[in-house]
Amino acid sequence: MIVHLIARAKGPIEDAIIHSLRQVVGAYSLLFLTPGKMIAARDPGGFRPLVLGRFGRAHVVASETTALNLMGARLVREIEPGEILIFEPNSAPKSIKPFFRAPTTRCVFEQVYFARPDSRVFGHSVQASRQELGRALAREMRGIEADMVVPVPDSGVPAALGFSRESGIPFEVGFVRSHYVGRTFIQPAQVLRDASVSLKLSPVRETLEGKRIVLVDDSIVRGTTSRKICRMLRRVGVREIHMAISSPPIISPCYYGIDTPQRDELIAARRKPDEVRRFIGVDSLHHLSVEGMLRAAGGGDGTVTKAASDSGYCAACFTAEYPTSTPDFE
Ligand code: SF4
Fold first, then answer.
1. 3-state secondary structure of 39
2. Alpha carbon separation from 79 to 60, 211, 270, 311, 312 (Å, rounded)
3. Burial class (CB in 10 A: 0-12, 13-18, 19+), 5
4. Are strands 58-62 and 51-55 parallel, antiparallel or unpaired?
5. How confident is the model over 171-184, as pLDDT tens digits?
6. Is 257 helix (H, G, I), strand (E, B) or coil?
7. Among the atoms of ligand 1, which is closest to the Cα of residue 318?
């Protein structure tokens, strides 16, 4: 769509890009290559990350800092929300901010799940933020009794570590994970998602049998993957499962580039909390609060304490409060 707008615009390429992006509402982090220029652009809300790096004399632009690390480039800085950077040979990059100022709306789900733990996103270590999400959840679940904290690998691992350290309940590796199967909630069909879970995770009976566990995961989307995992745990003799989710219930779809399902497929949008607990098959089900999540995503330093709309984050899939107008095709 953006390329189409640019193709119809007149004038030099920078002007065509600015003219086109002024007509677009929502999330984008873009890189354009022309025969003589490289142009990077981030939307005025800054939904998605975008960083600038240096590799010798070359400039590098990437979504996540881990890409810079992998190629041996040095992080220079985050490209700011609403900033356009124009790179030309033999000159310093030119920065312009041609959009009206907008509230910052960084996607909090990047910290919860999407970004790689070895990245820094929005100025914070993703690994540290996820551990802090787990610590915050342990504080909100104070008094829970269990023999061990078990993560759903791999995305639940940092939060489970944080939970274990905060609660004092020992951390155990309860699953062996195959690394050859992709993210299950993005698989297009239920039958593929089910097959992926069984192929991906194998519970360790010797560790789990007869135990009361806190099972830590980052989020619940449809609930079908969690249900399958819990059935596997019951089959190896787990006595009690207390499911601890390091984000609030997902009640609304994302319109900012993440392929989450429509509302009627989101289990928390359709069922009451106790119905979700029974569907998944756990003894208790706990979610981190919106406030706890926003505070932890902000780096755990207590600077983010207000409602989602004041935090500098988008949390719309958890609150249904969208920072922009949304399409009405549901
Ligand atoms: S709706 Fe959710 S996934 Fe989408 S940008 Fe907002 S926080 Fe991120």
1. strand
2. 11, 48, 38, 19, 16
3. middle
4. antiparallel
5. 999 999 877 765 55
6. coil
7. 2
315 lines ligand 1 (CB under 6 A): yes
Beta carbons of 133 and 296 less than 8 angstroms apart: yes
Q: Same structural domain for residues 177 and 72?
A: no
CA of 108 to the centre of ligand 1 (A): 7
Q: Does the N-terminal peptide bond of residue 154 adopt cis geometry, omega within 30 degrees of 0?
A: yes
SS3 288: coil
Q: What is the pLDDT of residues 221-277, one digit of tens each?
A: 999 999 999 999 999 999 999 999 999 999 999 999 888 888 999 999 999 999 999
- Spatial CA neighbour of 136 closest among 319, 302, 24: 302
Domain match, 67 and 120 both: no
Average pLDDT over residues 19-35: 95
The answer to whether position 209 is within a domain reads yes
Residue 50 sits in which domain range? 2-102
pLDDT band at 125 (very low <50, low <70, confident <90, very high): very high
Instruction: Decide if 37 contacts 54 (C-beta within 8 A).
Output: no
258 lines ligand 1 (CB under 6 A): yes
Question: Measured from the CA of 110, which atom of ligand 1 is nearest?
Answer: 8
pTM of the model: 0.90
Q: Tell whether 89 and 202 lie within a shared domain.
A: no
Residue 112 CB–ligand 1 contact under 6 Å: no
* Residue-averaged pLDDT of the chain: 91
The per-residue pLDDT for 193 is 65
pLDDT for the residue 311: 77
When mean pLDDT is compared across 80-84, 100-104, 236-240, 297-301, the lowest value belongs to 297-301
Q: What CATH number did the domain enclosing 221 receive?
A: 3.40.50.2020
Domain shared by 55 and 150, yes or no: no
113 CA to centre of ligand 1 in angstroms: 11
